[in-house]
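Bumping my old thread because nobody answered last time. Still need a sequence for this structure:
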């Protein structure tokens, strides 16, 4: 039933889009505007993406910069495409559109342009809008300041509810959210917060200071965006105020911006876990793809050479007992798999903040216990399999003990390395799956052939 409804909705959308495209092709401006402006801004942006440059030119002619701004805020295109889309517009139209966007969204777009282009648009823009955008542009990327918006409502704690409602009615059209109204003192320092509901139900002559909540959770303007996302998630906020070191209210960060941050951070962490520098965009150029992947692959190539050289050191052992080579992929693969599992647990704990609620030593001890149990189970299982397969008890014992030891060490390495990186303020996701796998390959080879060399006399050639 749900699939049928989704298909029906999809057909309806496509019919609407076809009708809008036909109106553009037939130069039916009034019909296009009537139907197009009834769409949700996201659907407007989806339709806009399907158009080629020639037809888009008509959209710029039919829509005002203010109407285009609402569409542009919902436009999901690759970062380098913003430059091309803006180039399709006249400079005055583009500048006017950017002026009508929420300041944080306009900054996101301008950050993708060259400095000369940014300066050009800021010069043409309305002075007030340009100044708001300039104030946000100088904040360091990936901080609270870089994603906050200055379109919020602030009232004085000495005001009455009646005067606060007047401000709310006047400023609400430009505010990004009105569900929280922030309260400031005479120096514009954050003093409290009041919800829209409390404001509506309070008596008109009540002072704001009497009904506000003065225990406000805020974030510093220099705080990392990932930490801001955790705070909004933990407190279930729709928005959070941003302050400077003197507690002056500078802006707010809304939950829709945090959703984008969480998506960006998840993509970034996945890229690093996969050993790829950037997966935010889908590159269609083999050269560009190769340039992003080669650094990690070259590092792993040299680590792989270390593994090969280690095996070479045990050439004499291999010559005497050739069957040992059969189990190299098994032991190395098991080490890589269990190390990656432990890595995923550690990185997730760091990313979600769960590790702050328990000691890192507790995590390592727990993972060591997990490695012991899995190592014991797999070691005993493989020992019997090898014994019945090769009819050699000592060979089975050697492989079993190697698996047991390797899984314990690999699990510890998978959990300890990201914790160590986090301790030195290095992104733990850099301890990627391929990196941990290669490191554990080296460890497993050392353990396996080290034991084989020690107990050579007990093995059948």
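Sorry it took so long. Here it is:
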């Amino acid at each position: 039933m749900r699939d049928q409804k989704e298909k029906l909705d999809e057909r309806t959308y496509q019919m609407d889009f076809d009708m809008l495209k036909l109106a553009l092709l037939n130069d039916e401006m009034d019909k296009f505007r009537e139907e197009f402006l009834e769409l949700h801004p996201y659907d407007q942006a989806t339709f806009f993406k399907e158009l080629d440059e020639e037809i888009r030119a008509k959209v710029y002619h039919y829509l005002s910069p203010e109407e285009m701004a609402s569409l542009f805020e919902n436009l999901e295109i690759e970062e380098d495409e913003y430059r091309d889309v803006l180039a399709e517009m006249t400079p005055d139209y583009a500048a006017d559109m950017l002026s009508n966007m929420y300041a944080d969204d306009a900054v996101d777009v301008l950050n993708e342009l060259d400095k000369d282009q940014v300066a050009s648009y800021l010069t043409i823009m309305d002075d007030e809008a340009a100044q708001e955008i300039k104030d946000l542009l100088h904040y360091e990327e990936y901080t609270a300041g870089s994603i906050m918006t200055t379109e919020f409502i602030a009232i004085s704690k000495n005001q009455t509810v009646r005067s606060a409602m007047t401000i709310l009615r006047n400023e609400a059209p430009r505010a990004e959210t009105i569900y929280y109204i922030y309260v400031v003192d005479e120096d514009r320092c954050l003093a409290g917060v009041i919800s829209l509901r409390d404001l509506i139900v309070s008596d008109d002559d009540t002072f704001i200071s009497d009904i506000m909540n003065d225990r406000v959770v805020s974030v510093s303007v220099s705080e990392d965006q990932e930490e801001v996302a955790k705070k909004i998630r933990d407190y279930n906020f729709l928005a959070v105020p941003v302050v400077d070191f003197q507690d002056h209210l500078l802006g707010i960060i809304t939950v829709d911006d945090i959703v984008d941050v969480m998506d960006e951070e998840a993509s970034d962490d996945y890229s690093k876990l996969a050993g790829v520098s950037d997966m935010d965009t889908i590159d269609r150029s083999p050269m560009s793809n190769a340039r992003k992947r080669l650094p990690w692959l070259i590092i792993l190539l040299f680590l792989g050479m270390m593994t090969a050289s280690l095996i070479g050191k045990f050439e004499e052992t291999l010559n005497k007992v050739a069957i040992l080579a059969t189990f190299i992929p098994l032991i190395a693969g098991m080490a890589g798999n269990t190390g990656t599992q432990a890595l995923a647990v550690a990185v997730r704990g760091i990313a979600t903040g769960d590790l702050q609620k328990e000691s890192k030593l507790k995590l390592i001890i727990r993972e060591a216990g997990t490695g012991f149990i899995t190592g014991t189970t797999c070691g005993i299982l493989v020992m019997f399999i090898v014994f019945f397969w090769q009819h050699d008890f000592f060979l089975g014992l050697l492989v079993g003990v190697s698996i047991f030891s390797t899984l314990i060490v690999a699990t510890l390495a998978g959990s300890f390395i990201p914790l160590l990186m986090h301790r030195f303020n290095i992104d733990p996701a850099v301890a990627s799956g391929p990196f941990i796998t290669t490191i554990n390959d080296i460890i497993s080879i050392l353990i396996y052939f080290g034991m084989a060399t020690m107990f050579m006399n007990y093995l059948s050639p």
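The chain has a mean pLDDT of 82. Let me know if any region looks off to you.
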